[in-house]
Design a protein that fits this description.
3-stranded antiparallel sheet; 23 helices
Length: 453
């Protein structure tokens, strides 16, 4: 006889409890879980929800089968974000139905484990595990430190159980709470956290990140807390292949550690093209002023891929020292290199770049590069650049010899200004509409009219 359909008005804990019970009592009846899982997913589709075991306040589970399972698996609370995927809800239900499976915890379905195996009523609590004795003790009355101490002890236990979802959750929680401490306890607890994040733990978190892309952002955040050992591990992994692929989140993590620049800098002296490109990418993300000379030395590298990686990296710096090398790259013999240099200069968003870029634009003979530089200039939101482009659009004589009409080039300027849609671009279009001629004047007027709609 098939089970009766779930009551859609039942509490979430009842529906989830029925799902766990069904998975535990009849693991082969996959079809029977479908309506229950759908009911659970529907209940959390529009609002966050919490399922609490309530064990910390009472040792009695009141005959609640779900609470019994939560207690046996040392789960204190489940926090579900609105719209949590049904796949993640089912993964947690399956783990709770099992006696030994690791308990998953994701950004959408977060699981809080109990800080210790709770004793039965009437028994004395177990003594702290000596293996966790390196976790510092919080001073009495320091609530934040006390919470971090508890999290680090949970983290230690999760590591020994190889519950990597819980490890990631606890490490991130501790990391985000550390800034709330005074300097001395913050340093002490930071050291303790780094000791817990030993190389095998970091490797396990990285492997988990490969399998679960949704956790990569959190993993990158935690990896940054691992200090130089984590930086060295990430760099070692990234150096293994010229193709980044699923390891891209390691670039985000290591690139967000400017304090690790000395770990990355030696790559710029490598004989391997892939390592030079990797070094440029990471140094560009770190944007540490002291590393500018290392990049500038390769602006004219004979290999295009290295040259472009270096130019792209320099484009991330706000330091004025990168301007002249990039300006020189605007005159490179390779068209794509000129484009890269133009984009890098334009990315600075500075009006001071307008005239060097415009000079390169006027001198450019390659139609495709000319168009790229035009787009960069139009988006710069510089009054000087926009008015210079307006003058180009209103020229009565040919200004380029590409084998196509002046009007076509002038219309390209109007389109670029219209697409940029900046205040400076609108002013330039207004001038073209007022002082231009023929098709160009009409195109500028139309662009202004459409921009106001």
């Amino acid at each position: 006889m098939p089970p009766s359909p779930p009551d859609p008005t039942a509490p979430l804990s009842d529906l989830f409890g029925q799902l766990v019970h069904l998975l535990r009592s009849a693991p082969g009846q996959a079809e029977a879980t479908v309506p229950l899982l759908a009911a659970v997913a529907l209940r959390v589709a529009a609002a966050d929800a919490v399922i609490e075991a309530g064990i910390e306040n009472s040792w009695d589970v009141d005959g609640d089968s779900l609470k019994g399972r939560l207690q046996s698996r040392q789960v204190d609370a489940i926090r579900i974000t609105a719209g949590a995927p049904a796949t993640e809800l089912m993964a947690l239900a399956r783990a709770l139905a099992d006696d030994d499976a690791p308990i998953p915890s994701t950004s959408a379905v977060r699981v809080k484990l109990l800080p210790d195996s709770l004793p039965l009523s009437g028994q004395r609590p177990a003594l702290p595990d000596p293996a966790a004795s390196f976790v510092p003790r919080a001073q009495r009355g320091d609530q934040i430190a006390g919470m971090i101490e508890g999290i680090l002890r949970e983290l230690d236990r999760a590591i020994r159980r190889q519950q990597w979802h819980a490890v990631l959750h606890d490490a991130q929680a501790a990391l985000r709470m550390l800034p709330g401490l005074a300097e001395d306890p913050r340093r002490t607890f930071s050291i303790a956290l780094k000791r817990l994040l030993a190389r095998p733990v970091l490797e396990a978190l990285i492997e988990q990140g490969y399998r679960i892309p949704e956790e990569q952002a959190r993993t990158a955040e935690v990896l940054r807390a691992g200090g130089f050992p984590a930086a060295e591990l990430m760099l070692e992994i990234l150096r293994r292949s010229d193709t980044i692929g699923p390891r891209a989140f390691l670039l985000d993590s290591l690139g967000g550690m400017p304090e690790a620049v000395q770990v990355v800098a030696p790559l710029m002296k490598s004989d391997r093209l892939g390592e030079l490109c990797l070094g440029a990418e990471l140094l560009g993300r770190m944007a540490v002023t002291e590393s500018v000379p290392l990049l500038v030395a390769h602006v004219h590298h004979p290999e295009e891929r290295v040259r472009h990686a270096v130019i792209d990296a320099l484009g991330r710096y706000r330091d004025r020292a990168v301007v002249e090398p990039l300006r020189q790259a605007l005159g490179h013999g390779a068209p794509e290199t000129r484009v890269r240099a133009g984009r890098a200069l334009g990315a600075r968003g500075s009006g001071a770049m307008a005239m060097p870029l415009f000079a390169a634009f006027e001198a450019e003979k390659d139609p495709e590069v000319w168009q790229e530089l035009l787009d960069v200039l139009a988006k710069l939101d510089s009054g000087e650049a926009a008015m210079a482009l307006a003058r180009v659009a209103m020229e009565r004589r040919g200004f380029l010899s590409f084998g196509s009409s002046d009007v076509k080039r002038q219309l390209s300027v109007v389109r670029a200004l219209a697409a940029a849609n900046t205040a400076a671009a609108k002013q330039a279009l207004a001038r073209i509409a007022a002082e231009g001629a023929g098709e160009v004047k009409k195109a500028a007027s139309k662009a202004l009219s459409e921009g106001r709609d």
